[in-house]
Amino acid sequence: MCGRFTLKTPIESIRRQMNLFEIRPQAPQGFHSIPRYNICPSEEILVLRKGLRSPADTARAPSVEFLTMQWGFSVEKTKRIVNTRAETLLDHERPPRGEPARRCVIVADGYYEWKQEGAHKIPYYFFRPQQKIFGMAGLWRTRKDHAENRTESCTILTVQANEKVGKIHERMPALLDIEQTLRWLEVDLRRESLQDLLIPAPNAWLQSHPVHHRINRVGIDDPQCVKPVYYDQQKSLF
Which helix H or strand E contains 182, and what residues bound it? Predict the structure, then answer.
């Protein structure tokens, strides 16, 4: 699963790394003006999706757009589905609880996972070499409240962990590079292509190290979150 992630990369660098896109910026003015080291469920996150178009606008293919969404499908007042097993999509061809959803990509440059060590859980930070950004395959949907207000939210798809991540946790996000992101966002993507994309990333794709358990606290969001803290030095902190 993926319960926290990072997006420290400046928006200008994100655009450069995604130069294959003609991106329409829909994110609010000033969004992601500061690095994020501990993004938590229910917060606004940066997402890529195919732009929406009116039924009358059929002459032009939908473009890719940046926008923000709330992380997690709200299913109860206090419960959110922040992760969804990819097998749910592949086996049943429907999102959680059967509600309609479409494909999107969550933009990130690292994520956290926890390893059970006796009675404690040690957080680990996973990231790409050279701090490259990556995508996490996701689903998004729109929900109306009683006042007819519309909220767009998303969930991250997870797959069985590769051998390297599996030493920490049995699941991992379905990670996408730039080319795979383009494919994931194709409107008419076939089931076989979905299966090709929803697989564990190669072992060499990610690096990792243990970090301080302070990231467990909502609101802690600073560079110390991603600094290596090794277990022998950390035992006294529990």
Answer: helix 178-184
pTM: 0.86
CATH 3.90.1680.10, applies to 4-233: yes
CB-based contact 101:141 (threshold 8 Å): yes
Please list, in sequence order, all residues whose beta carbon lies within 8 angstroms of the beta carbon of residue 60, skipping any fewer than 6 positions away: 53
pLDDT tens figures, 131-158: 899 999 999 998 876 656 788 999 999 9
Residues 6+ apart with CB under 8 A from 170: 160, 161
Q: Which residue do the tokens 């992630």 mark?
A: 5
The DSSP result for 72-109, as a single string, is SEEEETTEEE-EEEHHHHHHHSS-GGG---EEEEEEES
> Given pLDDT bands bounded at 50, 70 and 90, which one contains residue 238?
very low
CA distances from 143 to 34, 42, 73, 99, 163 (A): 28, 14, 9, 10, 37
Domain ranges of the chain: 4-233
In the predicted model, is pLDDT for residue 234 greater than 70? no
Residues 108 and 38: beta-carbon distance below 8 Å: no
Residue 169 has pLDDT above 60, yes or no: yes
